[in-house]
Amino acid sequence: RKPPNLPPGIWGWPLLGTFPSQDIPMAEQVKALKQKYGDIFTWRIGGQLHIFLSGYEVIKTAMNRLEFSNRPQIYSLDMFSDHIQAGIVNTSGKVWQNSRRFALKHLINMGMGKNSYESVILNEVISLIKDFENFVGNPGQLPWSINVAVLNVIWRIVADRRYEVDDEEIHRFQMLQSKLFDDVSPVLAKYDHMPWIGKIVPHRVTRWLGAEEFYQITRQLMAYHRKCIAEHKAVLDLANPRDYVDYYLLEMEAQKDNPDSTLSELDLAISLNDLFVAGSETTASTIRWAIFYLAKHQDVQAKVHKELDSVLDRGQLPTLELKSRLPYLEAVTGEVHRLISLLALSVPHASTENTSLNGYNIPKGAVIVTSIECCHTDPELWERPNDFYPEHFLSEDGQVLKNRDGFLPFSVGKRVCPGEALANMELYLFLGGLLQNFHFQLPEGEDLNPKRNPRDRFVNAVKPFKVIISKRG
Ligand code: HEM
């Protein structure tokens, strides 16, 4: 039965509601419904009540309230932990709070000191530049070393290790990562809309119906994380923790008699997986998108080069200390985030209890979907919403406009991306280092269809494109 006073929208057929079109990206469908129903609307999909938020103010209000901080059931992500609550991304309540608190504390603490993120990233920038030099000249796809560099940053943080670009191990690991973002099996896509099926059908049967390949990927990725934890346990030195895994194992031991602790080896393995899955393809894809837009907009690239040349000597790399002197580069990064809306519909939340929002009732368990893309393309907030226009992020005197209303590539509120500072540091240092050394150009006639694949899940991954890389003299 339809609960009273829901936001306006689509209720659909008894039991099933109305399914989204398979041919139009979900983010586009949400944009069209915003025109009809406004900033908050209902859409019952597969019998599950969804509340879509598409206006910046209502998103900010809701995301800052704990009542909207749960995750709904996401069957494919549950497969990693054999359907047990563990890790950061796909958990609710106490497990989420404990794992997220640990991650936030350690991502901040470990960013300082002698192995600061800046030095870790700069080390990767140097390797990346060296590798790009091998690709100077002929048109081709961007080197795969971008992914290795981004993965290495996470490996250094979590396990104090890194890989050379030609190491087969990192190739295998990356292949598994990227498969997660490929078309997921149609069976799992159905479960996303109708998670109650997963409660009725035994997991074995689901795998047999078409989820076996995805399941095997989850097993292989989990094997990496479990091995990494076992290796750390074998040499754990209480007095000298080195990395995320060491600190976690120590904290787990310290909390072992605390009944409220939810730290466990499974939780650690899933947290590691979360950091890789949430932090690698996202950052690497944004770097690729940025190079695409700069190659397409030669005038913008020329301005970035001019700014770099006014601050740095040839051979010098941009560092964090110099960031405030490179406002145009920062504006370009902001504009890339805005225009690509990498996670156009963020990651879904769920309401923890019966509550209200903007005068409407929101029942417990409703799936809350925020449209980041609607905010990033709102003509009330952006002068030229559909163009690549870095000036959106610059004041008249050329200073960076911080905290712009309607800008939320990392979401906002209680579950805001805990990797935001790290990701932005990577984007600045990687792009700055590459642009200081190279010029990028699209071959004649090359373009990228910026349209999304309707079957992309979560991430608006960049499609392959060709580029000509030249060394700057
Ligand atoms: C360009 C790069 C990135 C973008 C655009 C991005 C964006 C996002 C967004 C939109 C969310 C969903 C927040 C929500 O549920 O409301 C998220 C969650 C998350 N991100 Fe990122 N992210 C990026 C990089 C990273 C990095 C580098 C890391 C860590 C190494 C990371 C770790 C996470 C985690 C663990 C979550 C789950 C947070 C939670 O559920 O409490 N992300 N990210």
From TrEMBL:
One of its GO terms (biological process) is organic acid metabolic process. InterPro entries: Cyt_P450, Cyt_P450_CS, Cyt_P450_E_grp-I, Cyt_P450_sf, Cytochrome_P450_fam2. Pfam families: p450. Keywords: Heme, Iron, Metal-binding, Monooxygenase, Oxidoreductase, Signal. GO terms for cellular component: cytoplasm. Heme binds at C417. GO terms for molecular function: heme binding; iron ion binding; oxidoreductase activity, acting on paired donors, with incorporation or reduction of molecular oxygen, reduced flavin or flavoprotein as one donor, and incorporation of one atom of oxygen; steroid hydroxylase activity. Gene3D superfamilies: Cytochrome P450 (1.10.630.10). Its cofactor is heme. Belongs to the cytochrome P450 family. This is Cytochrome P450. It comes from Halocaridina rubra. The lineage of its organism: Eukaryota, Metazoa, Ecdysozoa, Arthropoda, Crustacea.
